[in-house]
Amino acid sequence: MKFVRAMSFTMAFMLGVGGFSQVSAEPVVATPVAIPAPQAGMSQVVFFRPSGMGMAISCNIREAGKMLGTANNGRYFVLATTPGLHKFTTHGETTDELTIQTEPDETAYVKCKIAMGIMSGRPNISPSTKEEFDKHAAKIKLSDPEKMAKAIAEDDAHRASAAGPH
Amino acid sequence: MIAGAFLGPSLAVAQSIAPPPAGASGNVNTASQPIAEGDCCTLPALTPVKLEISSHLNSATSRIGDHFIIRLAAPVTLGDGLQIPAGTEGVGEVIHAAKSSFGGKAGELLLAARYLDYRGTHIPLRSLTYAPENGKGREGTALGVVIAGGMIGSVAAMFIKGGEVDIPPGVVVYAKTAAAVNFPDPTKPNGDNSTQKGSLSQ
Question: B8 in a domain, yes or no?
Fold first, then answer.
């Protein structure tokens, strides 16, 4: 009983602190992310990952094995690509695949979520829409281009060394 | 398994459709090419078309590369009273299919409209979506018909059944022509009458 009372008090205190912090915080102005149109004749894909579980797990997007970018928790990146069929993969405890067809002068949206796995998280990429992206747009940020370029370069080097000399 | 057996016949229909040709066929031209001699009418690229999916599709049973039947749900006017009639058949393709699985992963199904076949002339299509040209969601679904199980509250949600995406026959979708198509003049002796004047029932 004492334990229950102590937990109740703790919960009430935490809620109180939360409520106080909300009152005193500056009002958050939601700034929607405006995705520019792709280059004429080209297409682009917005990969985004809303905040959620599996914060420590990156959602690395690959096509034909090559890493294209990464969307960490609450981040997104834009991939400029050619119109046509594209088969993207992401790897965690399992590998998930998504094939989409991009159209000229249009933007496609792909969402990444981390689902619960047995040992670690299971990234899942699924088709999405501009409307769904806009719902999260105020809370997500662009992936750091420098960090992403560095991660891609390291991955390229790793893949090259793994492939060995021909 | 039950769903698979239930959907078996419709999938068999889908698989019996001839696959689309590697390239555009018939009188398909890019928008910048001139109309050939003897052609009367051009269907411009990016013309909105209203379609109906005639096959039964399901994320658990459809396979990537499956073809399915689409039909023109509303006639397309070419000018001079010429129309491509409603009911004109074509082919769509399953771009991505994944059944629901462990971890709360919902079923996924991505579709694309490939072409309408009107009297031997293929009209290439693109940008299949649930929303019309000026409707909500047009840009967001530009990659094709996007139906993900997690999109509760969207139009797609009505097709979700038990974590899978289920598309019954008769669903109306929208697309655009992917390239300009020239049709022969039906009044000329050598024309193949590939377009009709006036009545759609001819």
Answer: no
pLDDT digits (tens, 9 = 90+) for A61-71: 999 999 999 98
pLDDT digits (tens, 9 = 90+) for B38-51: 567 889 999 999 99
Name the residue among A71, A50, A54 with its Cα closest to residue A62.
Answer: A71
Distance from CA of B111 to the nearest CA of A (A): 9
- Asked if the interface predicted TM-score (ipTM) of this complex is over 0.90, the answer is no
The pTM assigned to this predicted structure is 0.71
Can you spell out the DSSP letters for B126-176? EEEESS-TTSTTTTTTTTSEEEETT-TTSGGGGGEETTEEEE-TTEEEEEE
| Chain B closest-CA separation from residue A29 CA (Å) | 24
Domain count, chain B: 1
- Distance between CA atoms of residues B120 and B26, nearest Å: 7
pLDDT computed for residue B193 by the predictor:
45
Give a yes or no: residue B144 inside a domain.
Answer: yes
Interchain contact, B96 vs A100, CB within 8 Å: yes
Q: Give the residue carrying structure tokens 């792709």.
A: A38
